[in-house]
Amino acid sequence: MAEGIDRQQDVTYQAPVGCVDRRAFDDDGNSYDIRACYDCLPWHAEVVVIEGDILVREWHAVGCPQFQQLIRD
Question: If DSSP codes are grouped into helix, strand and coil, which group holds residue 66?
């Protein structure tokens, strides 16, 4: 890690990442539009099935403002 980088604000490819699971479909069965995060480089998503529910797992840098908002909600 480079000197002086605050890991809580790091949104580069080397940043620590965290994930949040989100519903893939609304109550009417319509899928959600998923777009890449513009605030962090390591963002990616995967589709997972947990207990029969189809979810989208989003991965973000832990310092990403979008990720911080998602885990607050």
Answer: helix
φ, ψ of residue 52 to 5 degrees: the values are 85, -5
Contacts of 21 by beta carbon, 8 Å cutoff, 6+ apart: 48, 50, 55, 56, 57, 58
Find out whether 62 and 18 touch, Cβ atoms under 8 Å. Answer: yes
The model carries a pTM of 0.83
Q: DSSP state, 6?
A: -
Contact call for residues 66 and 40 (beta carbons, < 8 A) = yes
Per-residue pLDDT tens for 10-19?
999 999 999 9
- Copy the structure tokens of residue 53: 């529910």
